[in-house]
């Protein structure tokens, strides 16, 4: 059966409710409309919600910013501040928290380089706390950061590297940043998802590894992800839907051709997709041609948000001076 690839909770909800006016059982949803962005809070409450959404119980916060593809400095600052608020809220207490920031992904592949680029721009301070034997500070938090790479570069499972670092450095919180996959090209580089359920490295390219979550690492894990790719088969499927909708509008109601279009199932559409793609590019993903610039802008937004959220004495003026 055809399964649309997406890492976004808002899209899993949309897929469940597609064509029907109903909410997902076991799921609570709240939507906030702001001037330049929309915040959707999806809370999976129980096993029923897990089954319907295909995601673990927890909170998923999505910030959709249509203009984030071409942001001005004011918009980047506004989203960084909002992201910082959401991180503080979902982490509950960051003032005296020792935090490990993990930038997942392959720095040699631009659509997968979001995590490593964020790590380059976060303000790390753990070495000062260790050197001066300090437990806390009024202005700065104890923050460390790591870009573990991918198994193809290291030969080591990413989760094993992170677990070893966690066991050695004993952070109170892990924040993982990764590139995700969307089912909708309009959400590429315009949507930020924050979750308290952890993350599966490599999920954006359909190559899931050991999950990074509280059960595996032994500490709370917050994930921050931005979709940077769309599965080619998903794009073809959506295109076929649009073609069918257009043809149905032109077809005479009640005709055999109209009935054929109406009765075309997802499985039949998927067989058409496979027939076209399988010989040439069965596992192709698509990303925008300007992805280099997009990743740079997004890494600044996320790094600014993290620095403001984690360090009590850091504000927007400070992070804009620090980040280059």
UniProtKB/TrEMBL annotation:
<dbReference type="InterPro" id="IPR005080">
    <property type="entry name" value="Peptidase_A25"/>
</dbReference>
<keyword id="KW-0378">Hydrolase</keyword>
<keyword id="KW-0865">Zymogen</keyword>
<dbReference type="GO" id="GO:0009847">
    <property type="term" value="P:spore germination"/>
</dbReference>
<dbReference type="GO" id="GO:0006508">
    <property type="term" value="P:proteolysis"/>
</dbReference>
<keyword id="KW-0645">Protease</keyword>
<dbReference type="Pfam" id="PF03418">
    <property type="entry name" value="Peptidase_A25"/>
</dbReference>
<dbReference type="GO" id="GO:0008233">
    <property type="term" value="F:peptidase activity"/>
</dbReference>
<protein>
    <submittedName>
        <fullName>Spore protease</fullName>
    </submittedName>
</protein>
<dbReference type="InterPro" id="IPR023430">
    <property type="entry name" value="Pept_HybD-like_dom_sf"/>
</dbReference>
């Amino acid at each position: 059966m055809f399964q649309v690839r997406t890492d976004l909770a808002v899209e899993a909800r949309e897929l469940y409710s597609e064509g029907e006016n109903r909410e997902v059982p076991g799921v609570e949803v709240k939507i906030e409309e702001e001037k330049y962005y929309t915040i959707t809070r999806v809370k999976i409450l129980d096993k029923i919600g897990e089954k319907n959404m295909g995601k673990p119980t927890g909170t998923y916060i999505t910030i959709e910013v249509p203009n984030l593809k071409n942001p001005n400095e004011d918009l980047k600052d506004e989203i960084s501040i909002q992201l910082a608020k959401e991180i503080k809220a979902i982490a509950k207490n960051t003032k005296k928290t020792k935090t490990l920031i993990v930038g997942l992904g392959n720095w040699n592949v631009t659509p997968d380089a979001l995590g490593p680029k964020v790590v380059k721009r976060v303000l790390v301070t753990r070495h000062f706390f260790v050197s001066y034997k300090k437990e806390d500070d009024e202005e700065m938090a104890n923050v460390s950061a790591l870009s573990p790479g991918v198994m193809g570069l290291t030969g080591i499972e990413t989760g094993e590297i992170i677990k070893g670092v966690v066991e050695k450095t004993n952070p109170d919180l892990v924040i993982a940043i990764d590139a995700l996959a969307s089912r909708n090209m309009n959400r590429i580089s315009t949507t930020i998802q924050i979750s308290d359920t952890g993350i599966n490295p490599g999920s954006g390219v359909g190559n899931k590894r050991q999950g990074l979550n509280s059960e595996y690492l032994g500490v709370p894990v917050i994930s921050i992800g931005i979709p940077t790719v769309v599965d080619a088969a998903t794009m073809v499927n959506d295109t076929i839907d649009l073609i069918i909708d257009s043809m149905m509008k032109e077809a005479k109601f009640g005709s055999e051709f109209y009935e054929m279009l109406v009765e075309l199932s997802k499985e039949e559409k998927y067989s058409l997709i496979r027939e076209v793609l399988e010989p040439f590019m069965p596992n192709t993903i698509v990303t925008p041609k300007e992805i280099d610039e997009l990743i740079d802008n997004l890494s600044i937004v996320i790094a600014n948000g993290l620095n403001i959220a984690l360090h009590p004495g850091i504000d927007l003026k400070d992070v804009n001076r620090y980040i280059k």
